[in-house]
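hey team, just a heads up i'm posting the complex here instead of the shared drive bc the drive is being weird again. everything in one block, sequence lines first with there labels, then the predicted structure for the whole assembly after. its two chains so it's a bit long, scroll down
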Amino acid sequence: MLLIVVAVTVVVTRDLLKATMLFAIYSLTIAGLFATLDAGDVALTEAAVGAGISTVLILAVLALVPRYEHRRAGHSLPALAIVTLTGAALVYASFDLPAFGQPGNPVHQHLGAYFIDQTYADIGIPNLVAAVLASYRSIDTMGEAVVILTAGIVVYALLSPPPRPRRGKEDER
Amino acid sequence: MTLLSFINYWAVIILMMTGYYCMIVRGNMIKKVIGLGIFQTSVFILFISAGKVIGGATPVLREGVERYSNPLPHVLILTAIVVGIATTAVALALTVRIREAYGSIDDDAIDAAEEDDRV
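-- predicted structure starts here --
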């Protein structure tokens, strides 16, 4: 509930600094939610990455751009209709999904059960998430590292050339 | 099997639609990035809540625990969080470049600048 309230406030506010701070609170709340859903590792990552790094990144950009949103940026009824329609369709679809938290759900039948039973014999470390991440899915994790590298290269490429001022832009502002 | 057993999906849907609305309506680039972040985290919640078993424990093997929650969604979402921050970084870098090129990060102001350019 708190999450939804915070998310809506983030969308409504025009002050970008306020929105950034609320987004950090939102990420931290999500981290707490993950902890109650038994996902300790994910909660730690979300608290560090979502609430930490992304807030720092947005703040760094905010130092370069105006703090307030454009006045005319308002709300639009067609968009609201589209969003409500999509949401209604998803709610309709959600009735076909398995009920929350039941041990008999399909997601717990195959790989999950295998990992819980066999990981200690195969890998020998008690933290299942770390074992799966670094061993069974190590290629995937390497791909993730490649993504980070690519993102780093792209950010560097975007920000390194000196800005080319466009003619006639300064006087209108 | 009551209505309450779907409440996680509905919370996810509400958050997802909030992020979606933010992406569509808000002209400001930073607002769009934040909306994308909200959309992303709603998907994370979907996966993590699918991995939860009621009465289960955090998947770290130890004595005296019979039932663990499913570790696989946790692994997938760990990867997704890190990839998400990479996307955010690239989006923000693009925002900075747009600001340098057009002097604004709002959609209509950029459109106006485009028009001026064409004339």
